[in-house]
Design brief:
The structure holds two protein chains of two kinds. By secondary structure, chain A is mostly helical. Chain A is built from 15 helices and four strands. In chain B, β9 (221-226) and β10 form a beta hairpin. Chain B is α/β, with parallel strands linked by helices. The longest helix of chain B has 19 residues, at 120-138. Bound molecules: adenosine-5'-triphosphate (ATP) and magnesium ion (MG).
Chain lengths: 364, 253
């Protein structure tokens, strides 16, 4: 590669190893590292109110979940209308153990990283199971299978005393090197924990996509006859996509359980599944960073709508709770607008901005 | 290397007999052509070999492996690759990505190694890339390496289709009308590629082609199908003398 690794222009690869790089120029790497440092450092200098810290954490957890949804729906092209249920599987893995062992059992309070991974595993297991119809069914039929899982999941949780009929199951406070994580540091602690999960899984997925385990997902999406002829089992590849998505959802579920220190069915309903889909679409299906833009944009929208309705309520006091009406409306509007005008999502704006920088100093 | 043997294969669609009692043998390292008028069942036969269709009767063997009920991905793993008549490329991907995909089952690393990437997966992928580049050189696709397949001309897409099958390093290569719809120059190139594949890569080639000039030139053996039935087979000279074949192609006086 040429001496100047700051610009993409005029850079040619001289080995296949070089082409494998995640960051092609120093500038890319610098921007990435700067963002990462910023993400890790800001809580040291700046204190956010618990309310907003919760929003931030919630967004990060959504990022983990949407990265998973993006694998199955974005890369593999299989619509999943039950993603929240898989997140629920993760959360209820922690909750189920809390019920059997007691909510402050060492396994839950001390071995929480293990619990998070275990929840991911459970998510993967359920994902693979729900994905099994992919061996026979296609497209919409498969989507219906995921919807059925959502329904069955909600029903089972409501039905079973073991899961407290969907009422909140409490999770104890976790321990860290410095002892119990108390009320004051709870949100910052889970901010870092979620961030670490996001970074690790983000790199993991980025790596996966440049190997055969990632390429096969896109292959079955684009042409599953050809994929078959290339030696991939189209059905099993789809099952595997569901398992990966389930794994990510499971991680998100466990993080959710710990963040809220409780698990209740109201966080894992069909409404949430649709929200995850909206996040994936608005962010940009089939791109890794779309999974970051989407949740951020939707959460931001949510806050704005809340502000707006609070403000409107002062002017028209008789209208009752406007937020309940405005939320689904604004939400639906944004999805429709994106599907109509930017089906490739916010990630596409990023791509355009980048290709401009890439050609610098030449303008097309 | 083994011969590929088709014995008494019959395939029906509803009432239509696409193939009836077809028996053929393909010797290792040779070019064998299958010819016949439109709708004769040539593509159906390739579909039976490559696992997309399963014959109602009869058997297909490659060495001691039975292909009759195998799925396409299983057939692919046995070293039998195929280029489709109607392009079945990954149109939204680059030429390079199309070829990388073809090496799916040759890459030996596991999921965990893929997620970590550094180490085994990186090494195998770099090696993989080298193999793909060899095929790109061989098929003279260098200028199009990073082009999206859907934007390329028909002739080049056909060539990518063959290149992709070749990337699988097959022992047997099924080519379904690789020269159809090409201009003379492109056709010449493709003929050269097919002959080079046989010689340099030592593959068994099964070629379906309408251009009789080309077929007579390059085939070691020819099988002729008409309405799903074998009406002749032999060396090009034998087939050209076969009255049934002449009748099928030129019609009765
Ligand atoms: N999936 C299918 N369903 C129903 N009929 C089929 C199917 N596939 C092929 N056929 C029929 O089988 C017969 C043989 O078709 P095939 O495609 O094998 O012919 P071919 O020799 O490849 O012709 P061409 O030279 O036009 O490519 C045709 O009559 C065709 O209509
Ligand atoms: Mg045909």
């Amino acid at each position: 590669m040429s001496a100047n690794r700051w610009l993409a222009t005029g850079n040619f690869f001289t080995s296949y190893r070089e082409e494998q790089r995640i960051f092609f120029t120093h500038l890319d790497r610098l921007v990435f590292v700067a963002v990462l440092v910023l993400l890790f450092a800001w809580p040291l200098f700046f204190e956010l109110s618990n309310k907003y810290m919760l929003v931030v954490n919630h967004t990060l957890i959504a990022v983990v979940a949407v990265m998973g949804l993006n694998i199955v729906t974005g890369y593999a092209g299989l619509i999943s209308i039950g993603h929240a249920a898989f997140v629920g599987v993760g959360a209820y893995t922690v909750a189920g153990l809390a019920t059997t062992l007691g909510d402050s059992h060492k396994l839950i309070t001390h071995a929480w990283p293990l619990m998070i991974v275990l929840s991911g595993g459970m998510g993967a297991l359920f994902g693979a199971f729900v994905g099994l119809p992919a061996l026979r069914l296609k497209h919409l039929y498969l989507a219906i299978a995921t919807l059925s899982f959502q329904m069955i999941f909600e029903w089972v949780i409501h039905f079973m005393g073991f899961f407290n009929q969907g009422q909140t199951i409490y999770i104890g406070r976790v321990h860290w090197l410095t002892g119990e994580v108390g009320r004051s540091s709870h949100y910052v602690f889970w901010y870092y924990a979620s961030l670490v999960v996001v970074v690790i899984t983000g790199f993991g997925i980025r790596n996966l996509m440049r190997t055969r385990f990632g390429r096969c997902l896109i292959a079955v999406r684009d042409n599953d006859r050809a994929a078959d002829a290339m030696g991939m089992h189209p059905g099993l590849t789809k099952v595997y996509a569901f398992a990966l998505a389930g794994f990510m959802a499971g991680l998100a579920g466990a993080l959710h359980a710990y963040l809220y220190r409780g698990v209740g069915i109201e966080s894992f309903t069909l409404h949430h599944s649709i929200t995850y889909l909206a996040m994936a679409i608005v962010g940009g299906l089939g791109t890794l960073h779309g999974a970051f833009w989407g949740p951020a944009a939707i959460e931001f929208l949510d806050i704005q709508v809340e502000h707006l309705s609070a403000w409107a309520a002062q002017i028209f006091p008789a209208q009752g709770n406007l937020a309940t009406a405005l939320r689904p409306f604004s939400f639906g509007l944004v999805i429709v607008l994106f599907l109509m005008f930017e089906p490739r999502g916010i990630a596409n704006w990023w791509r355009i901005a980048r290709s401009y920088v890439k050609l610098w100093p030449f303008r097309y | 290397m083994h011969p590929l043997i088709i014995s008494d294969v019959t395939l029906t669609f509803g009432g239509l007999k696409a193939l009836s009692g077809v028996a053929m043998r393909f010797e290792p390292g040779t070019i064998t052509s299958i010819i016949g008028p439109n709708g004769a069942g040539k593509t159906s036969l390739l579909n039976c070999i490559s696992g997309f269709y399963h014959p109602d009767q009869g058997d297909i063997h490659y060495g001691d492996q039975r292909l009759t009920d195998a799925a396409p991905h299983q057939v692919a793993k046995m070293g039998i690759a195929r280029a489709f008549q109607n392009l079945e490329l990954f149109r939204g991907m680059t030429v390079l990505d199309n070829l990388l995909l073809a090496r799916h089952s040759k890459l030996k690393y596991n999921l965990l190694q893929a997620v970590v990437f550094i180490g085994k997966a990186a090494r195998v992928e770099a090696e993989n890339r080298r193999t793909v580049e060899e095929v790109i050189d061989f098929m003279e696709l260098e200028p199009y390496r990073k082009n999206t397949v859907g934007t390329l001309s028909y002739g080049i897409q056909k060539r990518v289709e063959v290149a992709r099958a070749l990337t699988m390093e097959p022992q047997v290569l099924l080519l379904d009308e690789p020269m159809a719809g090409m201009n003379i120059e492109e056709k010449e190139d493709m003929v050269r590629f097919v002959m080079d594949i046989q010689k340099e890569r030592n593959a068994t080639i099964i070629l379906v082609e309408h251009d009789l000039g080309v077929v007579m030139d390059i085939s070691d053996r020819i099988h002729v199908l008409d309405f799903g039935e074998m009406i002749g087979s032999g060396t090009p000279a034998e087939v050209a003398r076969n009255p049934k074949v002449i009748e099928a192609y030129i019609g009765k006086e």
